[in-house]
């Protein structure tokens, strides 16, 4: 069975949350609450996503995190790579130097084809496609979220 790491899965979850409110800065505590992940996990995921350039941050009392590009311009493959590094179904498809059988392995060409197909599939799905439409799937605002008008009510 081929499974993505839990952290890569959590990276997608955090990115979906950010994509669901693209015009807002969301702090790490709110992201943790909204995604039901621990603050430590969200902080670790955000560090990798920020380092990879998928997420940008703003400091200060109204600061937080937001997507660095539009959700349609970010692929699932990029999110997975930001968390786990380059995708590979076997050691030789992700790091040829790590395999001592590479010189005589007869399965490598097939594994390369499989690896390429899976990577192409992950690259063909955008973050926008992973993000449910707010009006269709969420009747109420997400926790800790208010509109600009609600923020300024007297």
What order do the strands of the largest sheet run in, or round the barrel if closed? 1-2
CATH top-level class: Mainly Alpha
- Please trace the helix and strand order, writing H or E for each element: HHHEEHHHHHH
Determine the structural class based on helices, strands and strand pairing: mainly alpha
Could you tell me the radius of gyration in angstroms? 19 Å
Mass-distribution shape = elongated
How many domains in all?
1
Which regions are unreliable across 5 or more consecutive residues at pLDDT < 50? 135-140, 145-154
Fraction of helical residues: 40-55%
Distance between the termini: 56 Å
Helical run tally:
9
**Biggest beta sheet summary:** 2 strands, antiparallel
Strand content: 5-15%
Tell me the name of the CATH homologous superfamily: Winged helix-like DNA-binding domain superfamily/Winged helix DNA-binding domain
Report on the structure:
The chain is mostly helical and 154 residues long. The chain has a single domain, classed as Arc Repressor Mutant, subunit A (Orthogonal Bundle). It is 49% helix and 5% strand. It has nine helices and two strands. The protein has helices at 6-19, 28-35, 39-51, 76-84, 91-94, 108-123, 127-130, 134-137, 148-151; strands spanning 55-58, 64-67. Strands 1-2 form a two-stranded antiparallel sheet. A hairpin with a 5-residue loop joins strand 1 (55-58) and strand 2 (64-67). It is elongated, with a radius of gyration of 19 Å. Residues 135-140 and 145-154 have low confidence and may be disordered.
């Amino acid at each position: 069975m081929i499974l993505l790491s839990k952290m890569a899965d959590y990276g997608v979850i955090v990115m979906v949350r950010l994509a669901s409110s693209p015009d807002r800065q969301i702090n790490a505590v709110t992201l943790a609450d909204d995604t039901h992940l621990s603050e430590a996990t969200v902080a670790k995921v955000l560090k990798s996503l920020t380092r990879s350039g998928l997420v940008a941050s703003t400091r200060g009392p109204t600061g937080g995190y937001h997507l660095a590009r539009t959700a349609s311009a970010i692929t699932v493959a990029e999110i997975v790579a930001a968390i786990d590094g380059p995708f590979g179904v076997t050691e030789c498809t992700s790091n040829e130097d790590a395999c001592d059988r590479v010189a005589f392995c007869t399965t490598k060409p097939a594994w390369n084809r499989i690896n390429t197909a899976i990577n192409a599939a992950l690259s063909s799905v955008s973050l926008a496609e992973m993000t449910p439409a707010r009006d269709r799937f969420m009747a109420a605002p997400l926790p800790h979220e208010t509109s600009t008008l609600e923020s300024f009510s007297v």
